[in-house]
Design a protein that fits this description.
Length: 483
């Protein structure tokens, strides 16, 4: 098992590192790594070929596998059922075939094998009978539980976070999105390598005891050290890249701000219908899919209120219950978009068995974002066309302020547009000016970005009473020909 652990750790590191290596030269660290390679790990250089033969493990491999899901009923039974259903959807999205799922009632996970010993044996039988090649645990496993359960069932064991990371890795499109996902994967990987490393030291100790004469820092341990180091270097590099990419996004956002264009962020649970709603509100054609995490990169579109005020709408990555902390990194650009918006449209899937729980999960993440709590939020119950009437009635009681819409049928969309218009910040400065006819461009800018209260055409020009932002007010002042 320990040789397998060793292989796994190296393989994961190799895979994650190789993914970007093909695209970008890593010249700056190559020299240092090469040196270290030669000093500490000759054996690896000699057996370089063995790296290619290592068994299939981890992230990219979750796809197209036959999986069995397991979970614990620690709190409420219904919650555990729903959570494992969601895990099933996640596994599907990742490309796996789900052969079955089962839940064990326990107060807390077994420290050694997650499931109880007896249940783990049972699981091993099911795995054999059904020909599963992977078990997905609906929770987070620590390294030793994972090892313990793998030993018990004889196939690869992964956890919920691994599946979500895999989906993210498959779906990320932008350079920034990809870098963020990779960073999240490495962040997840690092402490788990340590786990494997510890197990390797035990192994080395065993061999020492058996007279093999290998010190406490055997070659396996050195490899882990090296991998860990390479991962840290890679992570630092990714952080730098992401920091360099961020200014472009900040720039875009800043220029929207300068133009005083209000922004609305569409946030909510994954698969709630955010992209569909965005399409309806902007006549857009964003990817809509009945899959979790279809959207991974925030998209910004301009649109206008019924009275002609321009604003931007941003579609964002969906949230999910028990969002692992590593993933928050991958969500960062989305979280920033939300934190800096003027209005949040929080979309809820009313056809979900427990919409209120979705709202709670999303609010939990939102409450962790600086400033988000102060932003006016419109709660939208979407998919009312297919929502269960009983559920809907219950949700109305808990969330009385929510607007009911269907992005599919268009029901309630007009009311939502009105609500958005009402929540948008209004330009603050009142102006009363007379514009010459030559200032047509300025006039149309006021129409777009300001709010016109009065407009009167005369022989000399156009008299305008309007509320506008600072920049526009100054320019209108300059253009004013009224004495
Ligand atoms: N019946 C019904 N289905 C809807 C409605 N709105 C969206 N859907 C469906 O719900 C699924 C998810 O829609 P998306 O717009 O991709 O959801 P999302 O919130 O952007 O999802 P992610 O980007 O994956 O987080 C799609 O199959 C949509 O067709 C609705 O009002 N009624
Ligand atoms: Mg989407």
């Amino acid at each position: 098992m320990n040789t397998a652990d060793d292989s796994r750790a190296r393989e994961i590191a190799r895979r994650v590192l190789a993914r970007q290596a093909g695209r970008e030269p890593i010249a700056e660290e190559a020299g240092a790594l090469e040196r270290e390679f030669r000093e500490g790990t000759r054996r690896r250089a000699i057996h370089g070929a063995e790296l290619e033969e290592i068994g299939e493990v981890e992230y990219r491999q979750v796809r197209l596998e036959k999986v069995i899901l397991v979970g614990l009923r620690t709190g409420g039974a219904a919650a555990a059922e729903r959570s494992i259903e969601e895990l099933e959807a996640l596994a599907h999205t990742a490309g796996s075939e789900v052969l079955g799922s089962f839940l064990q009632t326990r107060d807390k996970p077994d420290p050694a094998t997650y499931l109880g010993k007896g249940k783990a044996k049972e699981l091993a039988e099911v795995v054999r009978e059904q020909g599963a090649d992977t078990v997905i645990v609906d929770g987070e496993l620590n390294p030793s539980q994972r090892r313990g359960l793998e030993d018990a069932v004889g196939v690869k064991v992964v956890d919920r976070t691994t599946v979500i990371l895999d989906i993210f890795a498959q779906h990320a499109k932008s350079r920034e999105g990809k870098a963020q996902v990779e960073l999240a994967q490495l962040e997840y990987l690092l402490p788990r390598l340590r786990g494997w490393g510890e197990s390797m030291s035990r192994q080395a100790g065993g061999r020492v005891a058996a007279g093999a004469g290998i010190g406490s820092r055997g070659p396996g341990e050195t490899k882990i050290e090296l991998d860990r180091r390479r991962i840290r270097i890679r992570m630092a590099r990714l952080r730098r890249q992401i920091a360099q990419m961020a200014p472009a996004r900040h720039q875009q956002r800043a220029s929207r701000r300068r133009g005083n264009i209000p922004s609305v962020a569409i946030a909510g649970y994954t698969n709630a219908g955010k992209s569909t709603l965005m399409n309806v509100l902007t006549d857009g054609d964003l990817l809509v899919e009945d899959a979790l995490f279809a959207t991974l990169d925030p998209t910004v579109r301009r649109t206008t209120t019924a009275d002609g005020r321009v604003y931007t709408l941003t579609d964002t990555v969906g949230f999910v219950s028990n969002l692992p902390t590593e993933l928050v990194e991958a969500f960062r650009s989305t979280l920033e978009e939300i934190a800096e918006s003027d209005v949040i449209v929080h979309v809820v899937d009313a056809s979900d068995p427990d919409p209120v729980n979705q709202v709670r999960a999303v609010n939990e993440v939102l409450s962790g974002i600086d400033g988000a709590a102060q932003i006016p939020t419109i709660l939208v119950l979407n998919k009312v066309d297919v929502a269960d009437p009983g559920t809907l009635a219950a949700v109305r009681v808990s969330l009385p302020a929510a607007l009911e819409v269907s992005a599919r049928t268009g029901a309630g969309i007009e009311a939502l547009q009105e609500e958005i218009a009402a929540c948008l910040p209004r330009p603050q400065i009142m102006v009363d000016v007379m514009l010459p006819f030559s200032e047509g461009a300025l006039l149309s800018e006021v129409h777009e970005d300001g709010e016109i209260l009065e407009q009167e055409w005369s022989e000399d020009g156009v008299r305008l009473v309007a509320r506008v932002g600072e920049g526009l007010a100054a320019r209108l002042g300059e253009a004013n020909i009224a004495s």
